[in-house]
UniProtKB/TrEMBL annotation:
Protein name, per record: DUF1501 domain-containing protein
SUPFAM superfamilies: Alkaline phosphatase-like
Any Pfam family the entry gives: DUF1501
InterPro entries in UniProt: Alkaline_phosphatase_core_sf (IPR017850), DUF1501 (IPR010869)
Amino acid sequence: MLSRREILQVGCSSFFGLGLSGVLQQQLKAATDSATPPAKSVVLIYLGGGGSHLDMFDPKPLASETKGEFSPIPTAIPGFQFTDRMPHLAQHADLLTIVRSMSHKDNRHLSGTHHALTGAIQPFRGNSNQDKSLNRADWPSYGSALSYLDPRTDQLPSQVTLPNDLIEGVLVWPGQHAGFLGPKYDPFILKDDPNSADYKVRGLALHDGLNIERLNDRKQLLLDMDRQQRAINESSQGKQYSLQQEMAFSMLTSPTLKDTLDVYAEPDEVRDRYGRHLYGQTLLLARRLVEIEMPVIQCNMGRTQTWDTHVDHFPRLKNMLPPLDQGVSAFLVDLKERGLLDQTLVICVGEFGRTPTISPLPTHNIPGRHHWAPAYSALFAGAGVQGGQVIGETDKIGAYPITPPYSPSDMGATIYTALGVDPHQMIPDRLGRPRPLNDGKVMDVLYTGAES
């Protein structure tokens, strides 16, 4: 018997001429080709700006021009090392797969981020950062695509992004919304620091003096006005706006999401275990979202500081790596102890890594590491991923993979497959043209433990 998601896929596929038999053939092929177990949630811990693989998961202690200031330490995976700034994750490496051979060809933040957060290469619109900023022509984020293909019946979003979106000056980094699918499928973005003393879920809070009864009165007034307007002009834009209003009202009046994002509901000892900092408390909220089976949870690790360490590289990492190490390890252990790790795919990655060389920018005298997409590392755990393994290898200075590389498109195919979505199915773009959702290959090596 077909599930609701499969029936939806049949309807979409029929629009593009595939039909029921084609869908069943796709399902059979997907089941044969992929060993990916299903996940109820995917948690993407995103190191916006590009975390240094060489200073976390792929140290090169024998390369004098590369190794930097941190020392290697043993991990729970025999024969493999992390740096001394990652002691908690090294201790719990038996829960992890580290892929050291992530690679692509784009050293730019914005388009590289689009690739990481959507699993697709950003359509070309020009070479400037403004050209690459968030745009409705972009591909949808993972949760947005899922929301389009399998809409929720409870009016909650399929993706929550926290604690903030990725913005640099006036530039909003792409890949953070539903792109050409439209705003109806956009994620909910928290935009609040859960470690701050005045934390509250402002995006879901009612304005002072406005209670649920008054909100419902306003909703009825808007509905009356909408009906009158639709009688005059039945536009698709008006319909879309009404759908967005309905979702906003549902989120405001439903306690589910707001209660889940209440970090104060956690005991002090649990909050302390994650760490009283932005990273730790964000990941604690992620665990609470996993408990309500939120399909996609994106945790942006960085607000005032990004991982773009061109300048003052090592002093900045000395501040940033310890809370990341504490928060991610506490998150993984907590999921395991609560029986949630097997149903949650956890990924920690940035848009690229950092250069093997340590050098100053032309405009600064303080050395740092710079953008490097040819080789970087990603952490995977949970949802059937075999723990205690390292996949892939880079050369002696960590510059290039010397084993088969994996791209952000492959990571995207893996995410979609874990969520029960055929990554290669067709979706309509803004002009209604059929486009493949993803062109990557599922990283079955995470589950089989053998290089392809």
